Structures are given as structure tokens and as C-alpha cells.
Amino acid sequence: MKRLIIASNNAHKVKEIKDMLKEFQFEILSLKDAGIDIEVEEDRDTFMGNAYKKAFEIYETLDEEEKENTLVLSDDSGLAVDHLEGAPGVYSARYAGVAHDDDRNNEKLLEELKDVPEDKRGAQFVTAMVLLGKDLDLRVFGEAKGRILHGLTGNGGFGYDPLFHSDDLGKSFGVASSEEKNRVSHRGNALQNLIKELRKIEDRHRL
To answer: Which coenzyme or cofactor does it need (predicted)?
Structure first.
């Protein structure tokens, strides 16, 4: 069984990815599970640039034997708000200056949009995803369209989820079930695209 190391210790993200990839025979591990303690500086100016850099640097920490049987899955995700010309973008996790402070990030976003009317609050969640392994380099994107609400709605999900009203669901990610969100979310869409590529590989190997 191949190991698949998710380039994250975010429990929400790890669970979401495990749920989506359960059809494949992978031993799925977080960085902590795999005994990897590395902080990759996300200093690229695109989501895909950051995702590839994380996957590559983590894969390079493995010894040659581990590389034979290990894949690294990395993503970079963020919120792009039309009125803010794509911001917060690659800075989504640290929009308010402190990494992963969801409350402050949400407060700043609401402040930036406080006088913006309903029809100008369009936004997209975007995910770039990379799966690296020996002779394997898969890169996919996913997107979820919606708009930014005027206040937090629901306490589910994480990050900007309670502020994001999904066009597909007709409600915020903050009130959606994990199954609903996985079906239409940016990361869910990226994973679906990744799954399609993995199925193609499996089919080729069965020939």
C-alpha cells in the first residue's frame, strides 16, 4: 500500500481529503503522522506555485527508499473577491497579518466590503493541487463560485466558510454539511479532478 502524505496538519483538511480519496488503496497521513516537521515558506505569487513548492520540498525530505512508495499531496487554496481585484488571494490565510487567525481575517474582509452592495460581492474559492511521487506529477485546479455575505452565517467549516454563500448550494459553507461542501467546494472540485487523473492511471496499469 502506497503512503500518501498530505502536506498539512490541518485536521479539517486532512479529514476532507481522506473522505474524498477513500476509494484508493492509500495509507493517508498528515505531516505529523508521517513524522515530518517542516515549514515551507509559501512565497510564490500563484496558488499553483505555492502548491508545487510545498509538495516538492516535502518529497525531497524523504530518503530514496521512502520515495519509491510515497506520494505527497499539497494544495494552496484561497479566496478571490471580485471587488478586491482577487484579494486576499494567496494571502488568504494571513490576510489580517497573523497566519490562520480566522476571526481576524473574517473581520478584515467584512470591513473591506462594508459599503459594497450585494451585486458587487462576487467571489470564488480557488484550489491548486499537486500530487508528486516517483515518475508522477499531477496538477489540477478547483473552483467554487459565490458571494460574500454581510455577516457570519453558521459555525461549520473553517476559514472564510461562514462568510461565503455558495452559488451551487444556495447557502453558506458555514451551514452546509461536510458532504454538501465536499460535493461543490473548490478543494472538492480539485480532488474530483485529481480522482479522474488517478482513475486514468489505474486503468492504464490494468491494461
So the answer is: Mg(2+)
Q: All 3 cell numbers of residue 139? A: 496538477
Three cell numbers written together for 194: 485529481
Strand blocks (E) in 31-135: 70-81, 122-133
| Residue type for position 149 | L
Domain layout of the chain by residue ranges: 2-206
Residue 78 labeled ligand binder: no
Return the closest-CA partner of residue 149 out of 165, 133, 125, 167: 165
* DSSP-derived secondary structure for 92-112: GGGTTSSTT-HHHHHHHHHHH
Residue 45 a catalytic site member: no
Residue given cell 516517483 in the structure block? 134
Residue 3 in marked binding region: no
In the set 33, 45, 76, 135, the catalytic residue is 76
The verdict on whether residue 86 carries a ligand-binding annotation is: no
pLDDT at 203: 83
CB–CB of 173/162 below 8 Å? yes
Residue 11 annotated in ligand binding: yes
178 is in an annotated binding site: no
Q: What is the pLDDT of residue 206?
A: 62
CATH number of this structure's domain 2-206: 3.90.950.10
Q: What is the pTM of this model?
A: 0.86
User: Each residue of 122-150: pLDDT tens digit?
Assistant: 999 999 999 999 999 999 999 999 999 99
How many C-beta atoms surround the C-beta of residue 179 within 10 A?
9
As a whole number of angstroms, the distance between CA 142 and CA 96 comes to 25
